[in-house]
From TrEMBL:
Transmembrane segments: none annotated. This is Co-chaperone DjlA N-terminal domain-containing protein. Residues 38-157 form the Co-chaperone DjlA N-terminal domain. InterPro entries: DjlA_N, TerB-like. CDD domains: terB. The lineage of its organism: Bacteria, Pseudomonadati, Pseudomonadota, Alphaproteobacteria, Caulobacterales. Pfam families: TerB.
Length: 164
């Protein structure tokens, strides 16, 4: 039975960096709210990396954008920023693995339309904060919509069919 405490410690330590802040906040938030936090952090990271890398200036601007997101303020910006930083480190070490983890976090909101729309809206705000979407950011936003089974039309990412 001496292995039980170490197993419990391992269960509390996630290998997934998106969950880095969960140890402190898991008792405060519901699993559904934590899923939304993970998805918000994931879309911010994906938008930041839309062109393939994040320069120090881009990183600082992204953190400022995240601080202004109302959706993240609900969770506590420090926890959100800590999770974002952890995911960014993961992208630096293993880009494919981090991409996979981010997409899983986003996909968890599929079918929860209000939460999913809030995440896409936050991603759009972050992407547009420098004056508009570039092609790479738009592609990331379209991918996020696809992961959530949401129409990009409702976010003005593509024109509605029949509308010119």
């Amino acid at each position: 039975m001496s292995g039980a405490p170490s197993q419990q410690r391992r269960a509390n330590m996630s290998l997934n960096p998106i969950h880095a802040a969960r140890v402190r906040i898991a008792e405060t938030w519901t699993p559904a709210q934590l899923d939304q936090l993970d998805a918000l952090v994931a879309v911010c990271a994906l938008v930041a990396r839309a062109d393939g890398w994040v320069t120090p200036d881009e990183r600082e601007r992204m953190l400022e954008r995240m601080r202004s997101l109302a959706a993240l303020a609900v969770f506590g910006i420090d926890d959100a920023l800590e999770a974002f930083e952890a995911l960014e480190r993961r992208f630096e070490q293993d880009p494919e693995g981090a991409q996979f983890e981010a997409e899983i976090a986003i996909r968890r909101l599929r079918g929860r339309d209000d939460a999913a729309r809030a995440v896409v809206n936050a991603a759009c705000v972050v992407a547009a904060s420098d004056g508009g979407f570039d092609a790479e950011e738009r592609d990331v936003l379209l991918r996020i919509c696809s992961l959530l089974s949401l129409s990009p039309v409702q976010f003005d990412l593509v024109a509605e069919r029949g509308r010119r």
